[in-house]
Amino acid sequence: MTVMHELTTVKPRAAVLAMPEYHPPLAARDALRLDFNENTFAPSPRVLERIHAMTDEDLTKYPEREPVERIVAEHFGLQTDQVLLTNGVDEAIHLLCTTFLDPEDKALIATPTFFMYDVNVRLMTPGLVKVQADATLEFPFERFMAAITERTKLIIVASPNNPTGTIVSREHLLAIAAAAPHAVVMVDEAYYHFHGETTLGDIHSVPNILVARTFSKAYGLANLRIGMLAGNAELLKYVRKVCSPYNVNGAALACLPAAIADDAYLNWYTEQVRVGRERIMAGLDALGVAYFPSHANFVLMQIGPKHGELVTAMRAHGVLLRDRSADPGCDGFVRITIGVEEHVTKGLAALKLSLEQIGWSK
Hints:
globular
């Protein structure tokens, strides 16, 4: 006699079922990439030289993170135990949530902001508190401070913020940290190089601040996936305990010292973005397109009901934009990344043609 076993389906944790999903682009990105806030040009030439110098034997070894952390720490004027290299800032966010959040804890963010905060917090706790910005999209400081409670264990603030390009002043960030000494405050400075204000110097005196930096944007290493957490060595000791010892690949570790050593390239690229940002905002003024003044390498535009048509038309002209209408408070908004001079020129020309093509009016 054959016994038929009932088919069972394995289910994940309830938190996994409930958490939102990040959906990367499905269409090919074989056009001018003004959609994902990447470096649109290239990393330092020294990076390619370092990649070409890698040997076949190099690829057989497990990557050693700590020697490169020493180099990075010295570059930023820190001690080695104050730096943890991560697989992009995405992993840094995941590590902090995993390290510090219990199910009964609260985490605090202001929206709209980087979607991966939401994903990673909800993996650990249902206690995600969101403070929505008003129509100006400026950081809601007073309401944010009022949302801090004794159960708040993790606070994440991006400055400059994505997708808005707005900033949170250093004074406000320090006030948040002081108001929540029982919480870890992660300041996401992914777009620091396009603004210039930082709390990195405050980690020596403010024990609950951890600063996140990426090497994907200004340094142009997005494909290598490398970021950094910097802060109190005692806090980072716990994060290191959770972190895989081989979380950052060897190619990224080999290239990072070369990238951070080339100040001339970094200064050139960030100046290209600064000038390009002014050109984009002036161009939007000329076209009558409303936008939010930006301190990052992108500008958020207010297009309205034709937001999807604009993105489609721009793709037909060889330029990719990012529709941000799904973000809270951003219905009808589209984001454009700032590239080098020729990319800005092409983006503005395509934008003018596309707006005319779709019959847009303010």
